[in-house]
Amino acid sequence: MLLQTSGPSRTRIFSLLHQCRLASSKPRFDYDLVVLGGGSAGLACAKEAVDCGARVLCFDYVKPTPVGTKWGLGGTCVNVGCIPKKLMHQASLLGEAVHEAVAYGWNVNDKNIRPDWCKLVRSVQNHIKSVNWVTRVDLRDKKVEYVNSMGAFVDGHTIEYVPKSGQAKSRVTAKNVVVAVGGRPRYPSIPGATEFGITSDDIFSYDREPGRTLVVGAGYVGLECACFLKGLGYDPTVMVRSIVLRGFDRQMSELLAAMMSERGISFLETTIPSSVERQSDGRLLVRFRNTTTQTDGSDVFDTVLWAIGRRGLIEDLNLEAAGVKTQNDKIVVDRSEATNVPHIFAVGDIVYGRPELTPVAILAGRLLARRLFAGSTQLMDYADVATTVFTPLEYACVGMSEETAIEKHGADNIEVFHGYYKPTEFFIPQKSVRFCYLKAVAEIAGDQKILGLHYMGPVAGEVIQGFAAALKSGLTVKTLLNTVGIHPTTAEEFTRLSITKRSGRDPTPASCCS
Amino acid sequence: MSLHLWNSRFSITVVRQCSTIFTSSSGILKLQHTAASSSNFGASSQTQRREMSNQPRGSRDSSGSGGQGGAGGAANVPGFQHPHCDRQAMYDQPVRKQRTKGGSYDYDLIVIGGGSAGLACAKEAVLNGARVACLDYVKPTPTLGTKWGVGGTCVNVGCIPKKLMHQASLLGEAVHEAASYGWNVDDKIKPDWGKLVQSVQNHIKSVNWVTRVDLRDKKVEYINGLGSFVDSHTLLAKLKSGERTITAQTFVIAVGGRPRYPDIPGAVEYGITSDDIFSLDHEPGKTLVVGAGYIGLECAGFLKGLGYEPTVMVRSIVLRGFDQQMAELVASSMEERGIPFLRKTVPLSVEKQEDGKLLVKFKNVETGEEAEDTFDTVLWAIGRKGLVDDLNLPNAGVNTQKDKIPVDSQEATNVANIYAVGDIIYGKPELTPVAILAGRLLARRLYGGATQRMDYADVATTVFTPLEYACVGLSEEDAVKQYGADEVEVFHGYYKPTEFFIPQKSVRYCYLKAVAERHGDQRVYGLHYIGPVAGEVIQGFAAALKSGLTINTLINTVGIHPTTAEEFTRLNITKRSGLDPTPATCCS
């Protein structure tokens, strides 16, 4: 019966039980739990553990970037990830909105509007600082002990760190350890990379206009940066080693790249950088090589931004001392987030082979704490995690890509419903509808269980979130097509999908309203 | 149930109230079958009887039902009974055999009304091989003589222009936000009403044109005329060029509705409605919006956003038929933006002053106090009436209820060869996508051998106020009424959209809730959301609700960060707990 009650109340009951247990035995360790890393995963885990009655200590430390950028508590998402990225994205959309406002009849002068980069950065940073502050207050309220220092293993139960005040190293012991140190952007190993290049760790607090920018890497971080820079009136170029958005649906990824090209972002395809040099005028000379044509080229940029991937921050942890196994720069865990050492766990971006997303980290961290300290048995479900790429036309998806579906089920056993659509709001400002497209990948048989949904258009994240809940509830094509649309929205287009790829029919819409 | 109807949302209320009567609110589920059988048009016995009575026409009609549904129907009813949908009655009914095509009539099908429902039905019928004519006619509005082309309310004077005006108003706000994000834009701005109206009307004209082309391509014969019945198979069409009598085997009535005018001096002479506002040739200025249904609130919302001064006059409650907590939050968010609400007030008269302004006298129905104010524009949004008057329905023997037509679960009227879809039907949500789907499914049943009926349950909808409100499923009060307060758990929370911080927009009314079963699987009965792009947020959840969403599934759905929709996955505070639903942190 207890196990059937819902999350919060169940948690509370178990935490009471646990507190009784804790009180009755003299603690062998300083803490029930030490969390290494104060990002999304670490904080969620630490706070939940305290809620469940555990004594918790959380370490957080940010090594400055090569150009010296550092930040406060809260990890990547708040400081150098989702939050500043979404704000810059919003700033870029608002620039577009000014032009649209003119089309809708507002007497606003949209000729030569320019953003004030420094004002924008200041606004973004002020917001981040306020979040940092709220996070600190929250930790204090929730009685999570926090040390602003880098913790490293001495052995499986002992963590060593340098307190901020003194030089001497301190040690604490813990019954359980959760590693949630996350990752940081990689630099290529070419001359000038760290001296002259920056990363997403720097761009959101950059103290001057980025100007003409080379974005190296076409993962979602690279594409998002290129897009908001373009929207803010700078001139980004994206250098792609092999493909854009590896891991995402290929058709959607190619559409996304085409949409960016239509907006004037240039791509250097199958190209890798060779070196970066600073010219006497202060600008950066980048030499690169096209790996297809085997030709070398060079160009001059104001800013070079590396977005070639992220690495896990294992090297400062002294994991060998605890005997924790790693794979590349990540930590391997089982379904309960345990490493090969049973009382050492890992959550968040440091985990090998899992989606590197804030909400995943938060939920995994919280569920882990409940399993450790509240008798919960619920495991994190990593399936069908929705995600969004915040490019000017956003791309969001949940579930399988078309390729994955074909691989798992066979091309004959899947049906893809697709369609282009025309957002009502796009007509008056005559915005391009060329890349407003969506598709549903489904089983071909029976009620046609949906395996994946893909959407490119405005506010894609807002559109896909509910469908993610639907997918988890067993959405079928039959149910989807019998869901009544909300008119006029773009999300309703999912309920109007009627053309299969197999039919070969034209997926372009004619009318708008019936 | 109150049948004194104030605004167009009444239909949803009625659906809820009717379904409450028919399903479990009586507390006795086993009586349901009986209840359904005795309801107006829900019963198989009646259907059979009706079809029997039509036997003389049997040579052309597909005769009889063969009793294929009948008594055995109950066994096929899905386990979950939803209060919005009388599924028992729906499954009890036999599925009619499809209409024969060909025969001695001019057409297999005449659709009266070229709006969302009519066009969808006509096009689908042609696709299934029927010979179809579609009549459409728009009577000019009484005050300004506004008229429009083919396509019905949605395209011409409804969702489309409304959404465009809403968007225009949001873009004005966006200009101010752009300044706060660092754009060097001068945000002392005004809209050009004339340019906006022209842009909106140009878009509408292009949609009209595409619609005409589409009808021609699909070989639907379009007749720009007003139809009235001569008998159940004969229609008199009044055309520009004269009159024409046409016959058909089957009729679908899809004439929709138009705004009501109050019965007070000056209402028709000086007031306008949503039929006029989107093509108004002058700035509306200081506007009195009478009525606080979704149309009134939306009009007031975009007028405010465009810099005019709307006042909303509310007779009794805001957004009747919607969750009242959410409705009051929507009203408060509008008041916060400077839109005054005259509560408990009804208009008494409208007079034109010498300066051309309109003097409106009104009365507070509680205090009895009378007052007056002058406005540039008075907009009636007190509800919509079905256009039954011109159809001459008694000639065809079609029953009406108020100004609507009651239909059974197959959209059939009491006359077996006459159907109705869209806003003209009694007691169903008046929404374009509902009309389209119902029209299309009807055509498939009539001519495509399909059996699938329209499921009117869990239809999501959105109110496009400045801060939008969208919902799907039950309101909190309906859930409590249906299941009892002890069996309902409400999860709720305020939230802070990330983008609101920099321009320091008010987050005071960003709120959402999930109304769910308290025990067991905690099935979600209804979801409610106030915030940006509410329609986009709720649509997917509507599909989730139809897929049987539970609280456990909801809170284990991983969020998309940073969005506002993800707040649904973070709901963890129940109203019952009394805990503060205001968030502290943003990010963990």
Automatic annotation (TrEMBL), chain A:
Protein EC: 1.8.1.9
Catalysis performed (reactions): [thioredoxin]-dithiol + NADP(+) = [thioredoxin]-disulfide + NADPH + H(+)
Cofactor binding summary note: Binds 1 FAD per subunit.
Gene3D superfamilies, per the entry: 3.30.390.30, FAD/NAD(P)-binding domain
Catalytic class of the enzyme: oxidoreductase
Record: active site: H487
Source domain of life: Eukaryota
Transmembrane segments: none
A Pfam match: Pyr_redox_2
Residue stretches making up the FAD/NAD(P)-binding domain: 31-365
SUPFAM superfamilies: FAD/NAD(P)-binding domain (SSF51905), FAD/NAD-linked reductases, dimerisation (C-terminal) domain (SSF55424)
Binding site for FAD: K86, G151, D349
Domain Pyridine nucleotide-disulphide oxidoreductase dimerisation: 385-496
Sorted UniProt keywords: Disulfide bond, FAD, Flavoprotein, Mitochondrion, NAD, NADP, Nucleotide-binding, Oxidoreductase, Redox-active center, Transit peptide
Task of the protein: Thioredoxin system is a major player in glutathione metabolism, due to the demonstrated absence of a glutathione reductase. Functionally interacts with the Sod/Cat reactive oxidation species (ROS) defense system and thereby has a role in preadult development and life span. Lack of a glutathione reductase suggests antioxidant defense in Drosophila, and probably in related insects, differs fundamentally from that in other organisms.
Protein's recorded name: thioredoxin-disulfide reductase (NADPH)
Organism, as annotated: Drosophila ananassae (Fruit fly)
Primary gene name: Dana\GF23459
TrEMBL record, chain B:
Cofactor(s) this protein requires: FAD
Alphabetical list of Gene3D superfamilies matching this protein: 3.30.390.30, FAD/NAD(P)-binding domain
Annotated spans, Disordered: 39-79
Region forming the signal peptide: none
Main location: mitochondrion
Gene Ontology CC: cytosol; mitochondrion
Swiss-Prot/TrEMBL catalytic activity: [thioredoxin]-dithiol + NADP(+) = [thioredoxin]-disulfide + NADPH + H(+)
KW Amino-acid biosynthesis (keyword) present: no
Biased composition (Gly residues): 64-73
GO molecular function annotations of the record: flavin adenine dinucleotide binding; glutathione-disulfide reductase (NADPH) activity; protein homodimerization activity; thioredoxin-disulfide reductase (NADPH) activity
Subcellular location: Mitochondrion
EC annotation from Swiss-Prot or TrEMBL: 1.8.1.9
GO BP terms: cell redox homeostasis; cellular response to oxidative stress; glutathione metabolic process
Record domain Pyridine nucleotide-disulphide oxidoreductase dimerisation: where: 459-570
Superkingdom of source: Eukaryota
UniProt cross-references to InterPro entries, sorted A to Z: FAD/NAD-bd_sf, FAD/NAD-binding_dom, FAD/NAD-linked_Rdtase_dimer_sf, GSHR/TRXR-like, Pyr_nucl-diS_OxRdtase_dimer, Pyr_OxRdtase_I_AS, Thioredoxin/glutathione_Rdtase
Sorted UniProt keywords: Disulfide bond, FAD, Flavoprotein, Mitochondrion, NADP, Oxidoreductase, Redox-active center, Transit peptide
Pfam families for the chain: Pyr_redox_2 (PF07992), Pyr_redox_dim (PF02852)
UniProt biased composition (Polar residues): 39-57
FAD/NAD(P)-binding domain segment(s): 107-439
Function: Thioredoxin system is a major player in glutathione metabolism, due to the demonstrated absence of a glutathione reductase. Functionally interacts with the Sod/Cat reactive oxidation species (ROS) defense system and thereby has a role in preadult development and life span. Lack of a glutathione reductase suggests antioxidant defense in Drosophila, and probably in related insects, differs fundamentally from that in other organisms.
PANTHER family: GLUTATHIONE REDUCTASE, THIOREDOXIN-DISULFIDE REDUCTASE
Family membership noted in the UniProt record: Belongs to the class-I pyridine nucleotide-disulfide oxidoreductase family.
Name used for this protein in its record: thioredoxin-disulfide reductase (NADPH)
Species per Swiss-Prot/TrEMBL record: Drosophila ananassae
Gene: Dana\GF19373
